[in-house]
Amino acid sequence: MLDIALLPGEYAVCRLTAGVALPHALSDGLGHDEVVTVSWTADGISVICPAGRAPSQAVVETDWRCLRVADPVDLAGTGTLAALVDPLAEARVSVVTFSTFDTDYLLVPAVRLVEGTAALQRAGHRVLG
Fold first, then answer.
1. Shortest CA distance to 23 belongs to which of 57, 50, 60?
2. For the chain, which terminus, N or C, has the lower number of CB atoms within 10 Å?
């Protein structure tokens, strides 16, 4: 069983053109319960951030809710993401995931949050918040 924290507010999944500079607003004054992640590839830059921080020049998909594994995840551990993604897939809830050094995050569509959290709870996880 994992404890999963529901972060406040809505999140955006964004795509920027490769080589563009990231706006400072992505990280300026980042709140305690906010997270921003950036991935660079030769094809472009992907950003996941609170919806209000979405870069204006990006292609943006909004209305996602962010869930965080509450306790630190052991990097050598296996199966953590599968234990979360599998019940969501069975419930037919789309998911976007990303990880930091300390933990894992999942985004589910805001309109499917109730179904997503219910699926996680049926799988034995506890959703907080």
1. 57
2. N
Instruction: Name the nearest CA neighbour of 21 among 57, 51, 62.
Output: 57
| Residues 119, 91 contacting (CB under 8 angstroms) | yes
Q: Are strands 3-6 and 126-128 parallel, antiparallel or unpaired?
A: parallel
Instruction: Tokens for 22, please give them.
Output: 């990231």
Residue 128 is predicted with a pLDDT of 93
CB 64 within 8 A of CB 96: yes
Which residue in this structure is represented by tokens 């993401």?
81
Quick one: 80 exposed, middle or buried, by C-beta within 10 A (0-12, 13-18, 19+)?
A: middle
What CATH number is associated with residue 61?
A: 3.30.2130.10
Residue 47 in tokens: 């950003």
Give me the number of domains the chain comprises. Answer: 1
Q: What is the mean pLDDT of residues 32-36?
A: 92
For the stretch 38-51, pLDDT in tens is 999 999 999 999 99
Both structure tokens of 35? 């997270």
Size of the chain, expressed as the number of residues it contains: 129
What is the pLDDT at residue 25? 84
